[in-house]
Amino acid sequence: MYKVILTDADGVLLNWEYAFSCWMQQHGHTEVENANWIYDIGERFGVTKETGKLLVKQFNESAAIGFLPALRDAMYYVKRLHEEHGYVFRCITSLSLDKNAYKLRKMNLEKLFGETAFEELVCLDTGADKDDALEQYRDSGLYWIEDKLSNAQLGLDLGLNAILIEHGFNMNDDIPEGMKKVVNWKEVYEHIVNNET
Description:
Rossmann fold; 2 domains; alpha/beta; six-stranded parallel beta sheet
């Protein structure tokens, strides 16, 4: 059996939130109180929605995007799934269409997870929907790992095995039937390995 896991990058493999907050502080922005419960970047930093989007795009196309730390225990368990269980990963990320941003993301993933774990990297425009990128996997039953509920729901609707990574901003969301919510990659790993046929 060909073992493929589809995954988002930011908030799933990489700690984008932490790196973005550091970058924003360096550029004179401060987070509002209880910011980690807020998904919208504009709200989180007390700026307009449009300014928030522009800042995200600017960050995603900056050199900083090549040096994001891994999220929680992602490094350890992605490597185990790949090296011990033969899974390969395809990353679908709404990062940017900028060629250098793509190269930096690829470099970042290879540095953290090794050069063979990711067989494909698809970079969509900043904040873009993932409908078309996921459509080709319709009814495949592949695992789809996300941190944004609407994207996880999209995967579920397309017949994928959706797993949602928990964050402050999605902690209180109602999880639909058929979707699994996890706190870390240890739980992802156990879920996948225990369901192998």
